[in-house]
Each structure stands twice: as structure tokens, then as C-alpha cells.
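re the bet — no i am not wrong, look at it urself. input seq straight from the record:
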Amino acid sequence: MTLADYRASANELKRTQDLLDLIPTMGSTALDIGARDGHFSILLAERFSDVIALDLTLPNIIHPKIRCIQGNAANLKFADNSFDIVLCAEVLEHIPPNILENVCSEMERVCRKHLVIGVPYRQDIRVGRTTCYTCMEKNPPWSHVNTFDEKRLDLLFPNCKTSQTSFVGINRDRTNALSAALMDMAGNPYGTYSQEEPCIHCGKPLKPPPDRDIKQKILTRLAFWSRQATSAFEQPTANWIHRLLIKTGAG
């Protein structure tokens, strides 16, 4: 699926609209962290007079209200309280865990009043796991190395209070430790190998898994049986959690 197809999908349209509903109607300055193709930067430009689109790779967005900047969210080159709003959606789940708190602290620092955060909700990142057939290390699906719920978001943004929380979509993908271990032993034949994200260990593109041998087929079948044994007891959750945060002390 191309990025354009993804943006046009029903689930993505719902997610986009939900985030827009949280964003204050008008303002002066906005920062879009992880801008990628500029999808949200352009939407922010409809409400804010000056929008910064920031990503690790310099975004290519042509718009009179948008300035594209190459930068790292762990070290934002902006003064304290620079932006009326900071938007960060589909980003924090990819941030290396050792710098995640620093990234969130930087967003709080440059935010003047509002922060809008969008992340997967209680995602089981064992489901869809891949094996990199270059370095043979295991990878979480879509390079989602972090999981989030309400409590973790509270801890990551201690200088903000929650104004609104919303949930989007339904997620029923759950597994268990035995099933995940059996899939690892089988080479994770059903992982997210179509993803654009490379291996988080060696940086190489993920290769499709080779054909399974008899042993791997048996392990895969055992993994499916193990997962089915516990799936009936799992409750579905939302797919995404979105939060509008207000910086403590903001006027």
C-alpha cells in the first residue's frame, strides 16, 4: 500500500478527523513533528499562519505557510515556548526507547500551550513480528518499539495536563508468550514484511521470509493453536489514543 492509499483509507480518514477535532481552531505558530509527506502540516496551515514541518529527512512541502526543516525531535533547535501548538502523531511509537523521554521533554519545552499526541493504544507488538534475514534479529511490526496507554502518556508529559482524550478504531490483535516464541522459532513467516521501515538492528530493508521447512510449519501450527487458546479471553481495545494536552501554567 502506498502512502497515498493509506491516507485515503477509511481508518486513516477517521484518525485524521479525530486529531483535527482536538486541534484548536486558530493560532499563530504550529510545529508538526515527523511531517513526512506534509499531510498534517498542510491541514495545520489551514488554521495557523506559520507552520514548521520537521522530520529527520528534509520534508518537501510547497506551501506559503509551511517551512520545512530537517531536525531531530530529541534536540529541537527552537527557543522555549516557541509554538502555540505542537502536533506529534504516528511518531512516538518509532522513537528508540532510550531517548523517548527526552523527545517528549523537548516537545513540552518548545510548546507554549497545546500539545496533540497520537499513538497506538496498548498495541501488542509481538503480533506481526518479523525476522531480519540479513542479521537474523527480531523486529516489532512497523518498527513500533514502544507501547502506550493513559498512564504511560501521563508519565511522559509530566508538565502537561490532559484536556481531552479520544480513541479511534478497534484492535483485536493479541497473542501470548508461548505463541510469540514459537513464531520466532519458525522464523516469523507472517510478519509485516511489506513495511517500509528497515530492520531496527542493522538498518537493512526487510526481506520476505524463505519457504518454511517441515519443522517451521509444525512450529507455526503450534503457535496458531496456542494463540487461539487465549484469544477468546482477550477484550478488543481501541487502535489509537489521541490526547490534547495543555502545558501547565499556560495562559
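see?? Helices lie at 3-8, 10-22, 39-45, 100-110, 150-156, 177-185, 214-231. told u. also The CA atoms of residues 59 and 66 lie 10 Å apart. so pay up
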